[in-house]
Design a protein that fits this description.
Length: about 120
């Protein structure tokens, strides 16, 4: 190896031992994600109520069995989005399907997505 080659090799090794200078962090402007968020699919469910029963009682359930739920008849039902409670509603008939009429809606900051 020639002297120049050794010097080049030493320079390369020195650069490897020296930690790289940290790149400056660019301050990015906040992005408006509302357009993207509006397209994310969610599952909306209407919860009639719930009941806690033993496995023995569940094993005894047959067609025609009645299980009492924790909601009173006529009480507003829970609206859930992906399992999270967002409000309450009542059941209505929409043509041949069931629908829901919103009676109460929690403020989840979703109004920003409606524009």
């Amino acid at each position: 190896m020639e002297k120049n080659d050794l010097e080049e090799l030493d320079n390369l090794l020195d650069r490897l031992d020296t930690p790289p200078a940290e790149a400056p962090v660019a301050s990015a402007a906040p992005r408006d994600m509302s357009g993207l968020l509006r397209r994310i699919p969610v599952t909306l469910t209407l919860e009639v109520g719930e009941a806690e029963i033993s496995l023995a009682d569940l094993a005894a359930v047959n067609t025609g069995s009645v299980i009492e739920l924790d909601k009173q008849a006529g009480e507003a039902l829970d609206i859930r989005v992906n399992g999270t409670l967002i409000g309450r509603a009542e059941v209505v008939i929409c043509g041949e399907n069931y629908g829901l009429r919103i009676t109460e809606l929690n403020n989840l900051g979703l109004d920003a997505l409606s524009s």
